[in-house]
Fold these 2 entries.
Entry 1:
Amino acid sequence: MTQPSAIVFDLGKVLVDFDYAIAAKKIAAQSGRPVDFARLFVDELPWLLRYENGELTTAEFVARLISLTGYTGTANEFEAIFGDIFTAIPPMIELHAALRQKGFPTFAFSNTNELAIRHVRQNFPFFANFTGYIYSHEVGSMKPDAKIYEALEHLAGKSGGELLYIDDRPENIAAGVQRGWQTIWHETPEKTLVAIRQLGVL
Ligand SMILES: [Mg+2]
């Protein structure tokens, strides 16, 4: 098999963990309304999906969520709370650094939104060290749709087995496999490190 010449990283649950319950609790504490906060930011929330698909601006999304939740703080406070849901996954951040040191171009490839990226950029120094970034809200397409994969190939100037792609969602990995990308379905840092070594990349 071809040796990959660029590495594509999903962000959430691969390089940083996230928990929307952290934001939901803080918003609930400043809300006068009986909202089911456990369900507030689950994947099915149509406003969040539309926001991450680039159909809503940050201002529109925040205004809708404030009105939905009865949040009594300011929009700026809401934005800070909404972004502050991430924690580092150190072994994966070290893997990214080791791959960069070996000279591999690396790409962040994420279904995400402007507030999340703003927070991650400000709080996680490793995030500045990618070669390039493809975000769903900028492309107007979410994994596993083909359009966002095409955007990654275009940015990287690579395709098929030249790309090695790490993601925790099987449906996203399946879409990469369909394009001929080499893939690692990320379950744990330990398993991903074994798979990386088996590919002879590190
Ligand atoms: Mg993920």
Entry 2:
Amino acid sequence: MALLDRAIVRLLPGVPKPVIQRLSSRYIAGPSLDDALRVVRKLNAKRKLATIDVLGEDVTTPDDARALAGQYHDVLARVDEEGLDSNVSVKLTGFGLELDYDLCRDNLESVVADAAARDNFVRIDMEDSSTTDRTLQLYRELHAEGLDNLGVVLQAYLRRTLSDLPGLDNVRLCKGIYVESPEIAFREYEAVRANYVRCLEALVEQGSYAAIATHDEHLIREGLRIVRAAALDRERYEFQMLLGVRPDRADELVADGHRVRVYVPYGSHWYEYSVRRLQENPKMAGYIASDLVGRVLGRSS
Ligand SMILES: Cc1cc2nc3c(=O)[nH]c(=O)nc-3n(C[C@H](O)[C@H](O)[C@H](O)COP(=O)(O)OP(=O)(O)OC[C@H]3O[C@@H](n4cnc5c(N)ncnc54)[C@H](O)[C@@H]3O)c2cc1C
């Protein structure tokens, strides 16, 4: 993204919430579980798989964390009842990681056990680098207990990622979305891409299940090259995209015989997720600029 565009995009937190809500509506299923299930039904009808994320990032008490885990039990039950093809994605801070490790572990374990009983799967999203060690530790602890319907996420922008791979048997690989310092993270676009390819090759080589999460055409092509070169069975990998981003490309991948899973967030805590998505949309600078100009000229927004 050009410098001026980046500067404009940094203004996003100052944009009124209703405008953010309007601009980001394509990225979020809606406020309720029914909204998420409606979207998943439509995705499944187009032969796309889903992973449901309950938006709930401002957890401040143990009760909040337990309540969020409770919402995931509801999601798993409804997905099961309705025979939908969707797993769930969870954020450990939502389960209380910053409050108490054991509370978080209990919440995660109960959701993973519920998913196992329903023959479903839980993906642990990766958050900022202050959580990486504890996230990987929790994944490994539950895995060692025999809960293998569980996967984790690694971020190609982190310099450590290649060395985190050994022993992880189900990984979603993404570029990474949080702001990290250059000491621990690659910052240049091409360096992140190159590390993504290195990590994906290593994942496939060690026999892990690979979830290739990107909308970057270069990386989608590299992903296709790598799975083809390894003659991977289609059950051993999948592509993943976010709701509202490049749906046509996802359709093409499905038509070519690949599995594609779409990340479907829903809930009332939509603001932080929306800002992150809008900051990544290359067209956002233009939208914000025209919205600002519109307001300066007195048009209502
Ligand atoms: C399924 C999934 C799960 C993820 N989970 C995590 C996670 O757990 N932790 C984490 O840190 N990050 C996560 N991410 C986010 C990821 O790290 C990136 O921030 C995000 O995917 C953008 O990177 P990209 O590979 O698509 O490349 P980019 O270079 O950002 O985008 C490539 C192209 O995709 C299109 N595009 C990308 N984003 C948008 C958008 N918002 N609106 C419109 N067009 C867009 C544009 O055409 C852009 O040029 C996840 C991403 C996906 C797809």
